[in-house]
Design goal:
The protein is of the alpha+beta class. Among the domains are: 2-87, 2-Layer Sandwich (Alpha-Beta Plaits), CATH 3.30.70; 153-194, no CATH class. It has 8 helices and 6 strands; from the N terminus they run αβαββαβαααβαβα.
């Protein structure tokens, strides 16, 4: 929890250095979108799958993208404080890397996927390195879902604050039951899914 607090404060400090933001880009051709981002000095921040890409950068670039969107896309500005998962978070990476230098993590006892590239991580130190690097690199939820499918997962439970990932999984992992634990009232459904009782 100490690292969570340091991460949050460091990201907030990084976001305050330059006015930046994020927008969701729905639909369109991914390569055409990435080309346009490069032209505008923007970066992909979240590859969400299902035709959704979250992009980030300086506000002028985001405004230009919204004013002249890539053909076949819809651009939705997001109410966030900065360009997370991009190079604008460089100072946060440095602060977090310094904080984790004294941590000796154990190796995971359960399967742990990294949203760096959807791969399984079995080494605790590597997982910690990925966690630090992820602050300024894109989230690859699309690759996580592909890996989940390859591994044959039978259900997905998202812990609070919840809803975004299970919403994406309903499109990217069709037929896989999901539970978003938003309040204690959702715990029974999560337990049922764990016990193989959910539809």
């Amino acid at each position: 929890m100490r690292l969570v607090g340091i991460r949050g404060r460091a990201m907030a400090d990084a976001a305050a250095q330059t006015p930046t933001g994020m927008s969701a880009v729905l639909g369109g051709d991914e390569e055409a979108i990435l080309t346009r981002l490069s032209e505008l000095g923007l970066s992909p921040a979240n590859y969400n799958g299902g035709g959704q890409l979250v992009v980030a950068g300086e506000l002028a670039g985001l405004d230009a993208l919204a004013t002249e969107p890539v053909k076949g896309t819809r651009v939705i500005p997001l109410q966030v404080a900065g360009a997370f998962h991009t190079s604008f978070m460089g100072s946060a990476v440095a602060a977090l890397r310094d904080a984790v230098s004294t941590v000796t993590p154990a190796d995971p006892d359960i399967t742990l996927w990294t949203n760096r590239d959807g791969s399984v991580v079995s080494d605790g130190s590597q997982a910690l390195t990925y966690l630090v690097d992820q602050v300024s690199s894109p989230v690859r939820w699309d690759l996580c879902m592909a890996s989940f499918a390859d591994q044959g997962i039978t259900g997905l439970i998202e812990l609070a604050p919840a809803g975004a990932l299970t919403g994406l999984a309903k499109r990217g992992l069709r037929g896989v039951p999901t539970v978003a634990v938003k309040t204690p009232d959702d715990l029974d459904a999560a337990v049922a899914l764990l016990n193989g009782e959910a539809a």
